[in-house]
């Protein structure tokens, strides 16, 4: 597989807000069904006559595909061009949505979900890399990352809320079908508004197929094994995939040191901003799992809520994230990413500890703490993406975006496995959530110690 390397030049964008909305729209559309489909699972199971053990693959396959293919998607968009990847990913997502909506069997539905996951795995790093490259200067860079963060968080909230409404009034198939026209429209808008991919010169770069297979297989195995541990507890059958994945990732390190054009460039992973951002984002993902996964179980078990009621009670988490994304860019420009992210992580840690031990059985107090916890998410996402992706060279921003986003899938899967194993062993919900608070608290220190204080600037604009 060989193609001309693309590195879009950092140049002013003629249509600032429309371009920003296209990038945000791509994020929204590929993530909307991540939570919406969960509300439709009972109806899907009733129509196809399948037990819950098989139904969970409707959600799991989607998550596995995103987590496993993110790094490959990030490198492909660097090599083949971001606009091409965004448009193709939206087309693939729309096709997968349509196939899922008209599927006559569970197998076809699962194929559609894999197609949606692949579309998301390629669209997410391409959209983030485009945001950093097309908007190299402030205040636009922070504005665009704020809009993208709000879109990503809104997608989850809209999916969680609207998924149940659509399923109740139109049927589960419309959870997928209603998004198809929007995906097609977004693909056309991407062709019209996003600048054409420009070659960086005569240099040609071969895509590292062996490295792609190792990183994709390794991530798939780790996430799959962690998911199975969370469902069934530790054992030979569940731990073996994790060990196999770790071996593949170790083989990847050995291989990448010897190949001419590695899929993961050493210069990218040596960035202190990227390392600090990935550690912080992984810790935040562990906290998110403590709130959403453990919190959902707690709401149903302790507060006697139904699954649907638990979802509504957790909605303020996403609402807080959307609200806090709006001023996050302004805060980052004024005070710097390291300071803003560290304070947001501290808020995340404190409020999660309050969720764990400070509610005294009051659902109202719990919801207030959930809103406060959600307020930490916007500044964390905006600040970390700005630093991590903005610090990378323009031709490597897809890879940096993918490495950054992959930490949330790996961190989330591993933390869920740990939490559910602890609960299965007799640990209470509060003590399990407190572990998440401690992990995020530790990430405050790693952010302050590892992340440089000066704001990241576009390499093309550095003195």
Summarize it.
The protein is mainly α.
Structure explained in plain terms:
It contains 19 helices and 2 strands. The chain has 463 residues and is an all-alpha fold. It has a two-stranded antiparallel ribbon with strand order 1-2. Helix 5 (82-102) packs antiparallel against helix 6, helix 6 packs across helix 18 (397-424) and helix 7 (140-169) packs antiparallel against helix 14. It is globular and about 55 Å long. It holds the Pfam family MFS_1. This is MFS transporter.
Q: Which runs of at least 5 residues are low in confidence (pLDDT < 50)?
A: 1-11, 199-203, 458-463
Tally of DSSP β-strands: 2
**Portion in helices:** over 70%
Number of domains: 2
Key phrases:
single chain, mainly alpha, Growth Hormone, Chain: A, 2 domains, 79% helix, 19 helices, 463 residues
Write the layout of secondary structure elements.
Elements: E1 2-6, H1 16-31, H2 33-48, H3 52-55, H4 57-80, H5 82-102, H6 106-134, H7 140-169, H8 173-177, H9 180-193, E2 199-206, H10 209-232, H11 236-256, H12 266-269, H13 272-301, H14 307-335, H15 337-357, H16 363-374, H17 377-390, H18 397-424, H19 429-450
Helix pairs in contact: 1-6, 1-7, 1-9, 2-4, 2-7, 4-5, 4-6, 4-10, 4-18, 5-6, 5-9, 6-7, 6-17, 6-18, 7-14, 7-17, 10-11, 10-18, 13-14, 13-15, 13-17, 13-18, 13-19, 14-15, 14-16, 14-17, 15-16, 15-17, 15-19, 17-18, 18-19
């Amino acid at each position: 597989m060989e193609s001309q390397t693309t590195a879009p030049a950092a140049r002013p964008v003629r249509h600032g807000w429309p371009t920003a909305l296209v990038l945000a729209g791509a994020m929204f559309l590929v993530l909307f069904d991540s939570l919406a489909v969960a509300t439709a699972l009972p109806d899907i199971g009733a129509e196809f006559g399948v037990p819950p053990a098989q139904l969970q693959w409707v959600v799991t396959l989607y998550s596995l595909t995103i987590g496993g293919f993110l790094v490959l998607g990030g490198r492909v968009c660097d090599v083949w061009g971001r606009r091409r990847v965004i448009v193709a990913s939206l087309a693939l997502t729309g096709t997968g949505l349509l196939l899922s909506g008209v599927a006559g069997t569970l197998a076809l539905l699962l194929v559609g979900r894999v197609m949606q996951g692949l579309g998301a795995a390629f669209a997410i790093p391409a959209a983030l890399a485009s945001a950093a490259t097309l908007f190299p200067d402030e205040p636009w860079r922070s504005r665009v990352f704020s809009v993208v963060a709000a879109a990503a968080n809104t997608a989850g909230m809209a999916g969680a809320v609207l998924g149940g409404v659509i399923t109740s009034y139109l049927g589960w198939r419309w959870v997928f079908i209603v998004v198809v026209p929007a995906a097609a429209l977004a693909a056309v808008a991407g062709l019209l508004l996003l600048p054409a991919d420009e070659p960086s010169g005569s240099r040609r770069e071969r895509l590292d197929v062996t490295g792609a297979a190792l990183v994709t297989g390794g991530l798939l195995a780790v996430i799959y094994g962690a998911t199975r541990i969370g469902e069934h507890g530790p054992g030979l059958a569940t731990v073996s995939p994790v060990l196999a994945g770790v071996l593949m990732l170790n083989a990847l390190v050995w291989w990448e040191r010897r190949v001419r054009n590695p899929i993961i460039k050493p210069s990218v992973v040596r960035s202190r901003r990227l390392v600090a951002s990935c550690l912080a984002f992984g810790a935040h993902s562990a906290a998110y799992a403590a709130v959403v996964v453990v919190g959902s179980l707690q709401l149903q078990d302790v507060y006697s809520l139904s699954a649907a009621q638990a979802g509504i009670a957790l909605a303020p988490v996403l609402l807080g994230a959307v609200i806090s994304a709006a001023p996050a860019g302004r805060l980052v420009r004024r005070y710097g990413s390291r300071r803003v992210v560290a304070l947001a992580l501290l808020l995340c840690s404190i409020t999660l500890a309050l969720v764990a031990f400070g509610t005294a059985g009051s659902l109202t107090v719990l919801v207030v703490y959930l809103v406060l916890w959600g307020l930490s998410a916007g500044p964390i996402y905006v600040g970390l993406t700005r630093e991590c992706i903005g610090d990378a060279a323009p031709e490597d921003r897809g890879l940096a975006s993918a490495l950054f986003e992959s930490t949330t899938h790996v961190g989330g899967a591993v933390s869920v496995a740990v939490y559910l194993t602890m609960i299965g062993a007799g640990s209470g919900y509060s003590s399990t959530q407190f572990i998440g608070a401690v992990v995020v608290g530790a990430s405050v220190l790693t952010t302050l110690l590892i992340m440089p204080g000066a704001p990241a600037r576009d390499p093309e604009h550095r003195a």
